[in-house]
Amino acid sequence: MVSPTPTPTLLQPTLPMSKSQKRKQERRELSLQAAVLELDLNDPRFLDEKIQVESALQYNFKDLILLREAMYTLKWYAARLPNGVLLKEANYGLAQYGDGVLRDVLLACWFGQLGPDNTRMLIGKVQQRVQAVITDKYLKKVADDHGITDLIRKWYPTAMMKEPGEKGIATTIEALIGAVAIDSGGDREVLRKLLVRLLGVEL
């Protein structure tokens, strides 16, 4: 009995991957290599970063773990702080707190400048002023002006996107504000000076 001739299989041509597909594949490979990153306070890159960030903020941290958390932006990697706390969403939790602090201090200072005869129109202008300052675009410019964007960029592996996004950079500014708020025990004068220095606003 003659065996039937097998039908030849047509090979599909392998299409070259786009840049975005390559980045996704490289991210998957990197994530398999390191399930959890250990964040070391003695990392020379962090020690150099500490000097530059504290100079930009004109604030010296008592608890360096807060600064380490605030500057950790690689949200696709879980990371462990030296105190054992696991960061599953990078500095996002600290940034949420910092966003609230930022709004609170700006509103308190600018409402306080209105005096007793404030009108609904003036109150509305203050609220608009706050909204203009807390946008990602504005906070990204703040990071650029103070050299913080360059510090964030140093931590990005070559396989990742070329530039950290606007949202991630703005989030880091919020996280730094949150870190200072916690480290200073919520000292209003410290926070006022920080925002004047960082944001270039009068408070």
UniProtKB/TrEMBL annotation:
GO terms for biological process: RNA processing. Residues 95-185 form the RNase III domain. It comes from the Eukaryota. Residues 1-23 are annotated as: Disordered. Pfam families: Ribonuclease_3. GO terms for molecular function: ribonuclease III activity. SUPFAM superfamilies: RNase III domain-like (SSF69065). InterPro entries: RNase_III_dom (IPR000999), RNase_III_sf (IPR036389). This is RNase III domain-containing protein. It comes from Ramularia collo-cygni.
